[in-house]
Request: fold
Amino acid sequence: MNPIPHALVIGGTGMLSGVCTALAAEKWHVSVIGRSENKFRPLLKQQPEAIFPIQADYDSEEIFGLVQEAIEARGNFDLIISWTSNHKALEWICKLNASKVPFQLLHIKGSKRYFQDQEIGLPENCAYQKIFLGYMREAGETRWLSHEEISKGIFRQIGSTDTASIIGQIEPYEARPQ
Reply:
């Protein structure tokens, strides 16, 4: 493990921003991939010494060079948190992180993927966990999870040996908010 643990959060400027700031508060270096420069500002304002922006579209090829630069600057990732359905890009990022040191991948997925998932090829030193995002039921109504609920649920899974978990509820699927 690096002297200061290093996390990569893919899609970390929106609903995962709370995870980024929580990791930074726990003395992690947090490399964050996001598309919008404007969305990085609140993160950098809160934790400028620990948040390292990677502004790029994670579906573009430029991301690989930028991720490699983050690894060279702060060491391999001990943790990758990903909110992307681009499995090929995620596989490549995990290969870039290749070393003998184990790392954890928390792959965030929408509720639909609970029923229609696809496999992903990962290195042996990767502890892979799927986290499915569901909905909440309150007073007979359903609503989507808040960003805070999502971030807290994901943060609780860091270091977990679970292979899959659900934040909120997934079933009945038909009860999802519209």
The mean pLDDT is 90. The helical segments are 17-25, 37-46, 62-74, 87-96, 112-115, 147-157.
